[in-house]
Structure formats: structure tokens, C-alpha cells
UniProtKB/TrEMBL annotation:
Pfam families: AAA_16, GerE. It comes from the Bacteria. Residues 858-924 form the HTH luxR-type domain. This is LuxR C-terminal-related transcriptional regulator. Keywords: ATP-binding, Nucleotide-binding, TPR repeat. Residues 1-28 are annotated as: Disordered. It comes from Amycolatopsis nalaikhensis. The keyword ATP-binding applies.
């Protein structure tokens, strides 16, 4: 910053000797503007200029550089410098100028003469006389540095001569601190003249900053310029601190902090606001500044106003210090204890104002050696967010700070396990040590089990889940002496995490059976029921058994098991057709606390469960609203492609959009998903299923078929026999038919029928029967479709019912049962439109129009043959067999026989032999 005395340049007295002007990097434009005033002055006219800038911006250096240039140009140079230590001495600055203005060998005026002892006017005239005499000898350069610090009498002297030198070759250049409040009775413009050239010194650019620092232009020089605002004095102070690898934004100088603190002493309350602003950093709002500084709001406002005008604080709603180097310098000038206590107070104020945990935790980190018990929860929350936002090293810092507090054994275990999670991403071996340390600190068994369960629930999957499983296993072993009730819920959660994170079949469920008998705790019994339900689902043996176990598991209010990703995905797939169970599940999941997994928004699980149930009932529009609103919240947390629940939500939305006919939206969403990263058992399976359905629906049948088969292989690899999880076989069979692979379609349909019959629920059974109707022929196909419709009418699965009705109506139309087909297809159109399934509704409507046309007699015969009857009769008359006609028209032989029988009856002939003549006679009659 501008120094009081610059040893490189004279500050008073003698004229400046002629010597080359010092080089000032980046100040060439300002020097050019000042030297442009020389010709007018040399021609006999006065001129003036004012240089203004913030602390350290180079006002003094620029003034002395232009003074040296003026000396080279033939000016008599007189320079005086204002000083706060002399601002109370009358005439101090005027005396500096008088010494330089006196002619060589002439006696210098006494100091008392310039202070007006013989009268004020005489003293002013004396000063003006000195200026006039000097200007008479040649052009005169008057430079006054730091004029804002001049004493009142000197300022009056400068104001007195301002208009009296208009016709003299005098150049007056003043420098002043920007925004400095005016002192005494004379303003800056009154001293500079009526129309001074006003030049504001701004920060240097990258090239000039690099030159001052002795660096090559580049990122480091740019960072240094940003940290200092290009302030030359700050750049000089920064230079010796630029050690290899140092971040300029983290550097500071205690000397700069001391200088700035001293400079602020002349402004009431400014030092306290300065320190508060340095402590708060980006959190420096007006209220917090005033409170932390301990200053009345009106006084704080006045101090902030002054500091903003001085460019010490930014002119914004968050009046932070202008440059990071200044802030760091102020902090380094503060004693450590003062700084730590101030950060602790700032953390408390921020917490009370509702600031984000990350901002509060940033101050808690700096409040070292200060006991802040309430801050542990804040540090843990901030660490949790940091881990899932990809900053484990910051999370570890927060948690190590939390361990400095006096913690109960339970809280210490929780912090140690959380720290193990953060360190696991940095150093797995260190994380293992933290887990062992946590186990050694276990005091209360229930607390330890709860903490381990929470850890398992908070980890999305992958390697993180492996850490959670390992930690939970060690804690379970430590708690085993407490009996089955103490360890069983934790074992259940560990089993679920293990099953959901494996790339192969899940662990053997039988390993847990021996521990069932002695369970007495209701929560343990409910968790036992949950695992029995899971076992029933995986085996695919009995929907009734699975629903019964799920109902038992839902009798309590402890829904942690249902929050587990693996279990939630399976439970919603089974319970979607049971409205009462869905309602109970949503109530259990709708907890007040935030979800364990930071990627999962509050209320996400009940919203997703409700959306899955709506989709299962065929209410596609409402289901898509649930999924879309939830997906936006996952996007905000960055969990759409990484969190299993987010991936599940996206996959269900794609499936919903396919049924709604919104193919472009579905394609766009799938393009965002990471099929490589989403390798979890069910999340990736759902993505494959959704993509397979989309590809088949949009004409990429072969690729869609492969996706659906891959989906089936994954489920088989994991031992999942539950047919209602994703009905992949039904859609794969349709794709196989479209590809001409009838045998594959029949095989898939039979497999689906076997699995659905074993499971026994209406939806998968009705879906399998519908698929069977597509691959069977004649009466068998119709019986299968009629049975599918009867089965689905007893379930909420309206979309599947609409599909079955469409297939049956289409089959009836092909068989010549147009009246039946019309009624069936009318129901299909109405139901599919109610579901919002546009592609299905369009297909059903087209089939309905065809069926109605088939009932309309053909216009080219008098016997009332329908178009289909006439077509088949003509082909038969041409000699084609029933089989050949059926193949050509994609009909069954039975259908061909029915149409021919109707034609014989209408034409009044006994059989095929008379068919040609009857048709020819009919055409001749029509011709007449």
C-alpha cells in the first residue's frame, strides 16, 4: 500500500534532479495522459490533474514518475507529501512546497510567515507570490501526494492559488485516496482547479502483474493478479511468499494486515468491521458483520459505507473484503486465540441464522482448541454432503475436527464410522483402522447396532457398500454376546446390503434360519418376516406367502428395512397391486427425518412407491407426474445416475413414457443414464428392461430383443424367479414374433406361463396368458386370451387388461367374429384411452375400424358377401387350398373355413365346386 515515505523519490524540499523516470509496469496509459498536459503548460497555460486510487495502487509512484518526466521537459519540480502524522501541523505541506519554490540563493520564507501570524491574507499572498515567481522563471510542476492527509492551512493555500495561476505555466498534480472522506473546509476540486484531468488507477493486468512478480505470463500470474486485484503494493508483498505449489488465494502477509488495521483506526468502528469481514469471508452479510463486530447497526452501517468507498470492502449485499490476499493478511495479523474464538462466534451466528451446514462447518474447522459441542452434528452433516459431492478429503477434515470434542461412546463410534467412509475413498487401509477403532469404542449395544444400520443405509453401493458390510459384520460380532434380539436387525440389514451389492447370487438365506426361534423383540420378529418375504419373492413360489410376510413386516413403524434400496425395489414390485399394503408402506416410509442416503430427497421413497402403484394400476399420467417431479429433485442432488433409487425412478419413468407414447422424452432420459456405472442387481436390470421396451416400440426390435434377453439372464444369474419384477418374457416374446422367431416366442411364453402359475398373482398370470394367446392358434389362443381377461379383471392392472382385450378383439376379427370383435375392441379403446396409453389406443382403434368395415357388405356383389368373405371366395375359386389362403392372409385355417361357409350360404351353393360359377353370375348381374 502507499507508504508514508518513499525512499526512492524526494518528498519535499529540493527540486527533483534530472534522471530517467522509473519504469512502472502497466501504468503507461496514465503517464501518457499526464504528459499530454505538458504542451499546454509549456505554452503558458495552467493545467491540473488528480490521481485517485485505493491503498497501494501506485499513486505515489506514478506522481514521482511524471515529476521526473516533467523535470526532463524543463519544468521546475516541487513535490510535497501529506502525512497523517503531520495533518495537525498548520502549513506543513505548504512549507514543503515553499522550500522547493524559492529561487536559488534567495532567503526562504519563515515557517511562521506561511502560517499567517501577520494576517491570513498576507500569508496566502506570500504563498501565491512564491508560486508566481517560480512560474516566472519557467514552467512549474507542483505535485502534492496524499492530498487527503494535508493540514487545513495547506489545503486553503492550494485552494487560494487555484484560480490565480490560470494564466501561468503551472501544472498541478494531486494524488488522493479513493473514497476518503473530505477533511476540513476545502474540497479536492477546490484545490485542483475547476476542470482537472481526473485519472483513476485501477488494478494491473496479467502481463504487468507477471512482470512485477518475475513470472512468465500464465495461470499462476493470473491467480496472483486475482488474489491481489492487480494492486502493485500487494503484488510486491505476495512475491516473496510464492513458494512452489503455493495457492495465491491462500496466501497473506501479517505486515499488510497490520498496515491496513492501522489505516482503519482513523475511522470509527472500522477496525472491528475489518476483522469481522475477514473472519466471515463470503458469509459477510450486514447483520452478521454488525453482530460479530459487536457494533451498533447504525455505527456498523457508517463504517461499512466508509470502507466500501475506500475499496476495502466490495460494494455488494455481501460486503466482503475486496481481495483474498487482503483477507488472509488481516487473519494472519490476528492472534490465534482471537481468530479461533471469532470463528466460533461466527459459526454460532451462522447456525442461528439458518445458514447451510457447509458454511457453519467452515468456521468450526478454524475454531481450533475451542469446545463447541453443538457443532458436532453440523460437522457430520457437512461431511456427509461432502462425501457424496465428491470431496472426501474435506469430509475427513470435518470429522477429525468433530473427534476433538468430548463425545459419548456412541457418538464417537458414529463419527469414527463416518470418518472411515470418507477415508475409504482416500486410503482403504486407514479406513479399516478407523472401523477397528470404532468397534473398540462400543459402549451401548443398541446404539452401536443403530449406528451400523444407519451406515449401511447411507451407502449407495459398490465399494462403499463393501466397507459398510465389513464394518457391520465386525460390530455384529462384537454385539453377539447380547443375544439374538440385539444383533438380529443388524444381521438382516447386513444380509440385504450383501445381497444387493453382489454381482453373483445372494448369500444363502439358510444361514439365518437357526437364529429365528429365540427371537422375542417385535422389531426383530418384523425383520424376520421381511426376510421371509424376500426369500418367497426370490424363489417365486407363492405370492400369497410373500404378501403375508410383507404384511407382518409392515405392522410396526420402524421402516428402515423398507428404506434399504434392494428391499425397497422388491417390496414395491410385489405390493404394487395391493392398495391397502401400498398405503401402509407409504405411511411407514414417510418419516420426518432426512433419509440416510444424502442423494435421496426427503419424501422420495413414499412418492416413488405411490408412483409405482399408480403405474401398476394403469394410471400412467399420474404416475409420470410422480416420477418426473421426483426425478427433478434427484437431478438437483446429482443422484439420478448414481443413486439406486434415482436410477429406479428414471427407469420407471422411461417405462411409463413408452406406454404413453412419449418416445423422444424416454430416449433423451435414457441417453443420460450410465449403463456401465449402474451395475447394481436391480437398477441395471430395470434400465435394460426399460431400454428394451423403448427399442422394440420405436422399431429397433433386434436390439430391444437382446436387451430383454440380457435382463432375463441377469435375473436368472441372481436366482430371481419372481415373474412380476419385470415382465421381460412377455415383451421378448412379442419381439421374437416380430422378428419371425416363432419358436423362441413360444418357448418364452411357456416359461412365463409356468413361472406365473407357480407365483399365482393376477397381474403376471394375466400377462402370461395374453402372451400365450399370441403364440397359440385357433381355439387355444382364444381360450388363453379369454382367461387372461377374466384373470386381469380381478386385479387393478387396467393397462394389461386393455392389452388383453386388444389381442382378443384382433383375434376375433381374424376369425370372422366381427360382432364380438367390435364389442371387445370398443372396451379396449375405452380402457387404453383411460390409461393414457396412446400407442395401444391407436392400435385398438385401427382394429375396431377394420372390424366394422368387415361387417359392411362388399359393394361389388349382390349376395351381401363381406369384403373378407369375397376375398377368400375369389382365392378359393382360383384353386388355392384353405392352408394356402390362411398363409397368404395371415389367418388360421379355421377362420378360412368359417368365411367360406358363410360365402356358400349367401351364394346358395353346396360347396367349392360351384363357387366359380356363382361368383361369375354375381358379377354379370352387377354389370347389368
Amino acid at each position: 500500500m502507499d507508504t508514508e515515505v518513499n525512499p526512492e523519490h524526494p518528498v519535499s524540499g529540493a527540486s527533483v534532479p534530472k534522471r530517467p523516470a522509473p519504469r512502472l509496469p502497466g501504468r503507461e496509459p496514465e503517464l501518457s495522459r499526464l504528459t499530454s498536459l505538458f504542451p499546454a503548460v509549456l505554452g503558458g497555460s495552467a493545467a491540473s490533474a488528480v490521481l485517485i486510487g485505493e491503498f497501494g495502487m501506485g499513486k505515489s509512484a506514478t506522481l514521482h514518475a511524471v515529476a521526473a518526466l516533467a523535470g526532463d521537459a524543463g519544468f521546475t519540480v516541487a513535490v510535497a507529501t501529506g502525512s497523517r502524522l503531520e495533518s495537525h501541523l498548520p502549513g506543513g505541506l505548504a512549507r514543503q512546497l515553499a522550500d522547493a519554490l524559492a529561487a536559488p540563493g534567495a532567503p526562504r520564507p519563515a515557517a511562521t510567515d506561511l502560517c499567517g501570524p501577520a494576517g491570513e491574507s498576507e500569508a496566502l499572498d506570500l504563498f501565491f507570490g512564491l508560486v508566481r515567481e517560480a512560474a516566472g522563471r519557467g514552467p512549474l510542476f507542483l505535485g502534492i501526494d496524499n492530498v487527503h492527509l494535508a493540514d487545513a492551512w495547506s489545503m486553503r493555500c492550494l485552494a487560494y492559488i487555484r484560480n490565480r495561476v490560470a494564466g501561468l505555466p503551472v501544472l498541478i498534480v494531486l494524488t488522493s485516496l479513493i473514497g476518503h472522506p473530505p477533511h476540513h473546509e476545502v474540497a479536492l476540486l477546490e484545490m485542483a482547479g475547476c476542470t482537472p484531468a481526473s485519472i483513476t488507477l485501477n488494478g494491473l493486468g496479467d502481463a504487468a502483474a507477471a512482470e512485477i512478480l518475475g513470472l512468465a505470463p500464465g495461470e499462476l500470474a493470473t491467480a496472483c493478479r486475482e488474489a491481489t486485484g492487480g494492486n502493485p503494493y500487494l503484488l510486491q508483498a505476495l512475491r516473496p511468499r510464492l513458494l512452489p505449489g503455493a495457492d495465491p488465494h491462500e496466501l497473506g502477509s501479517s505486515l499488510i494486515g497490520q498496515v491496513l488495521h492501522t489505516r482503519m483506526q482513523e475511522f470509527p468502528h472500522a477496525p472491528a468491521i475489518l476483522q469481522a469481514a475477514a473472519i466471515l469471508g463470503e458469509d459477510a452479510g450486514f447483520d452478521l458483520l454488525a453482530q460479530l463486530a459487536g457494533v451498533d447497526e447504525l455505527d456498523a452501517l457508517q463504517a461499512i459505507d466508509t470502507m466500501v468507498r475506500l475499496h476495502v470492502l466490495n460494494n455488494s449485499n455481501q460486503p466482503t473484503l475486496t481481495y483474498s490476499f487482503v483477507r488472509n493478511s488481516v487473519l494472519r495479523d490476528m492472534p490465534r486465540t482471537t481468530r479461533a474464538v471469532s470463528h466460533a462466534r461466527a459459526a454460532k451466528l451462522l447456525s442461528e441464522s439458518g445458514a447451510p451446514a457447509e458454511r457453519v462447518a467452515a468456521h468450526l474447522l478454524e475454531a481450533t482448541a475451542i469446545r463447541i459441542p453443538w457443532g458436532v452434528d453440523v460437522l457430520r452433516l457437512s461431511a456427509r454432503n461432502a462425501v457424496f459431492s465428491g470431496h472426501p478429503e474435506l469430509a475427513a477434515r470435518h470429522l477429525r475436527r468433530a473427534l476433538e470434542e468430548r463425545l459419548t461412546s456412541g457418538r464417537r463410534v458414529a463419527v469414527l464410522l463416518q470418518l472411515a467412509h470418507a477415508e475409504f475413498q482416500l486410503d482403504p487401509s486407514a479406513a479399516a483402522k478407523r472401523v477397528r477403532e470404532a468397534v473398540d469404542n462400543i459402549g451401548n449395544r443398541e446404539t452401536a447396532a443403530f449406528i451400523a444400520t444407519a451406515m449401511l443405509l447411507s451407502l449407495c453401493g459398490g465399494q462403499d457398500a463393501r466397507l459398510g458390510i465389513s464394518a457391520a459384520g465386525q460390530i455384529a460380532a462384537r454385539l453377539d454376546a447380547g443375544g439374538p434380539d440385539a444383533v438380529w436387525p443388524l444381521l438382516c440389514m447386513t444380509y440385504l446390503a450383501e445381497a444387493g451389492s453382489r454381482l453373483g447370487p445372494p448369500p444363502e438365506f439358510r444361514d439365518f434360519e437357526e437364529q429365528w426361534a429365540p427371537l422375542t423383540d417385535p422389531a426383530a420378529q418384523r425383520s424376520r418376516s421381511a426376510l421371509l418375504a424376500l426369500d418367497a419373492v426370490r424363489s417365486g413360489e407363492s405370492a400369497q406367502d410373500a404378501l403375508g410376510h410383507f404384511a407382518d413386516a409392515l405392522t410396526g413403524d420402524d421402516g428402515e428395512l423398507f428404506e434399504q434400496h434392494y428391499f425397497f425395489t422388491l417390496a414395491t414390485a410385489v405390493l404394487a397391486d395391493e392398495p391397502s399394503h401400498v398405503d401402509r408402506l407409504c405411511r411407514v416410509l414417510d418419516v420426518e427425518r432426512e433419509p440416510w442416503d444424502v442423494h435421496v430427497p426427503h419424501g422420495a421413497l413414499p412418492t416413488l412407491a405411490r408412483g409405482i402403484a399408480l403405474q401398476a394400476s394403469g394410471d400412467l399420467q399420474r404416475a409420470s407426474v410422480h416420477f418426473e417431479s421426483l426425478l427433478r429433485r434427484f437431478d438437483e442432488r446429482g443422484g439420478t445416475t448414481t443413486c439406486p433409487v434415482g436410477v429406479l425412478c428414471a427407469a420407471k419413468l422411461v417405462e411409463c413414457w413408452v406406454d404413453l407414447g412419449r418416445f423422444e422424452a424416454a430416449t433423451s432420459l435414457l441417453d443420460r443414464m450410465d449403463f456401465v456405472a449402474s451395475q447394481g442387481l436391480f437398477t441395471h436390470t430395470y434400465l435394460l428392461y426399460a431400454r428394451g421396451r423403448l427399442r422394440v416400440a420405436t422399431g429397433y426390435t433386434r436390439f430391444g430383443f437382446e436387451d430383454l434377453l440380457s435382463c432375463g439372464r441377469r435375473l436368472a444369474h441372481h436366482g430371481m424367479r419372481f415373474p412380476g419384477f419385470v415382465p421381460w418374457r412377455a415383451h421378448a416374446a412379442r419381439a421374437a414374433l416380430a422378428l419371425g422367431q416363432a419358436d423362441d416366442a413360444a418357448r418364452l411364453a411357456e416359461e412365463d406361463m409356468t413361472a406365473s402359475t407357480r407365483w399365482g398373482a393376477a397381474r403376471p398370470l394375466g400377462t402370461a396368458l395374453t402372451t400365450l394367446g399370441l403364440v397359440r392358434e385357433d381355439d387355444e389362443a382364444e381360450r388363453a386370451l379369454n382367461k387372461a381377461i377374466s384373470t386381469l379383471r380381478s386385479s387393478p392392472a387396467r393397462l394389461q387388461l386393455a392389452t388383453a382385450l386388444t389381442e382378443l378383439g384382433t383375434l376375433q376379427a381374424r376369425h370372422g367374429q366381427s360382432e364380438k370383435a367390435i364389442e371387445t375392441l370398443r372396451q379396449a379403446v375405452e380402457l387404453s384411452e383411460h390409461c393414457g396409453a396412446r400407442p395401444l389406443a391407436r392400435r385398438a382403434a385401427e382394429e375396431l375400424r377394420s372390424a366394422r368395415r368387415a361387417l359392411t357388405p362388399a359393394k361389388d356383389n349382390e349376395h351381401g358377401l363381406t369384403r373378407q368373405e369375397n376375398r377368400i371366395a375369389v382365392m378359393a375359386a382360383q384353386g388355392l387350398t384353405n392352408r394356402e389362403i390362411a398363409t397368404a392372409l395371415h389367418l388360421t385355417r379355421r377362420t378360412v373355413e368359417l368365411h367360406l361357409s358363410g360365402a356358400y350360404r349367401k351364394l346358395g351353393i353346396p360347396g367349392r365346386a360351384e363357387l366359380g360359377g356363382a361368383l361369375a353370375k354375381s358379377q354379370r348381374t352387377d354389370a347389368r
